[in-house]
Amino acid sequence: MSAGFFITGTGTDVGKTVVTAGLARFFMKSGRSILPVKPVQSGAIVLPDGSFDSPDGDVYRAAGAVWDINRQCPYIFEPPTSPHLAARLAGVELDYVEIARKVRELEGDDFLLVEGAGGIMVPLSDESSMLNLMKELGYPVILVVENKLGCINEALLSIAALQQSGLEISGLVMTSPNQPAPEEFGMAEENIRFIEKISEVKVIASIPYIENWDYNDPKCWEQIDEALDS
Q1: Which of 178, 12, 154 shows the shortest CA–CA distance to 81?
Q2: Which region holds residue 127: left if phi is over 0, alpha if psi is between -120 and 50, else beta?
Q3: 227 is in an annotated binding site
Q4: Is 92 annotated as a binding residue?
């Protein structure tokens, strides 16, 4: 059995962090020991002492997961840019093999939920992308897709890239992090139907738009739980 899942998305701001935290809750309810991992984080929170914390880590903690920035986020940078640029500005060169090694150090009693940064082809360096890291780890992938106009193209291109790289896709999670899914003409349902039909990859959950989302509000997590349990 795999040591974990890799959670990636069709792009930035599609809800990967909420999905990762929600999956942590889902698995923890069944008694599994779960460890969310953010191998590379840009856009860090700068603490009063000058150290960094991860905004994604705040969401994991709110979901009830263990979060230790030093273990679970080995590469963190302040600029809110792509990882390769944030690393370059910090004088660091990211090596996907070394990143994967640090992730594997966490394998053991815990099941890992590894969240990527941005989408599949987000650069880690001039020579590598998030896809190289996914291939190096070899974990089954969960692809997060924002259910919106244009998501069919984004989803199918992402699925094709993952499949051509030999990665197993465990399923898709449809999200609506920024606005309700488009109901006109039955578009939201058709997006799901068409993506599943063409790709032969199942949508395993569909998370609705949550107005006034607040990761510190237990009622918001109840809606996430309901979507992932269905």
Answers
A1: 12
A2: alpha
A3: no
A4: no
Q: Residue 44: CB partners within 8 Å, gap ≥ 6? A: 52, 53, 54, 55, 76, 77, 78
Q: pTM to 2 decimals?
A: 0.96
* Catalytic site includes residue 202: no
Amino acid identity of residue 200, one-letter, is: E
- 176 annotated as ligand-binding: no
> Is 215 marked as binding a ligand?
no
User: pLDDT tens digits for 198-221?
Assistant: 999 999 999 999 999 999 999 999
Beta bridge partners of 195: none
Res. 2 pLDDT band, cuts 50 70 90: confident
Q: Is 56 annotated as a binding residue?
A: yes
Question: Does 159 score more than 90 pLDDT?
Answer: yes
Q: In terms of residue numbers, what domain contains 128?
A: 4-229
The pLDDT assigned to 48 comes to: 93
Sort 187 into a burial class: Cβ within 10 Å, 0-12 / 13-18 / 19+: middle
- Helices 16-29 & 55-62, crossing angle to 10 degrees? 30
Domain count, the chain: 1
Looking at residue 155, which CATH number applies to its domain? Answer: 3.40.50.300
What is the pLDDT at residue 1?
57
Cα torsion angle, 60, 37, 85, 77, sign: positive
Q: What is the DSSP string of 132-158?
A: HHHHHH---EEEEEE-STTHHHHHHHH
Residues 29, 38, 135, 219: which is the catalytic one?
Answer: 38
